[in-house]
Amino acid sequence: MYLIHNHAKGPKNGGRSSTYGIWCATRSRCERQRDSRWKDYGGRGIKVCEQWMKFENFLADMGERPTSKSLDRYPNKDGNYEPGNCRWATRLDR
Questions:
Q1: What's residue 91's pLDDT?
Q2: How many C-alpha atoms does 73 have within 13 Å on its Cβ side?
Q3: With a threshold of 0.90, does the pTM exceed it?
């Protein structure tokens, strides 16, 4: 995976991209009960769609993270992380 998209390089190789970091954090809070945010996401039934289990698919759908933006579930803020319900947004967009 590391060689395919070049976003997940380790700290010795320039670090991972912010886009990859957001994808990892999103999956963690939806899938790992030990994640401190799980109760607000996975614990409420919010999931990452099957298509986005592969970073390459997430990247193809969402593109690179724009500077100063984060992943926002929109228009349904209680919906899943999936195409058609996510956008890159600032805190003012929410």
A1: 82
A2: 13
A3: no
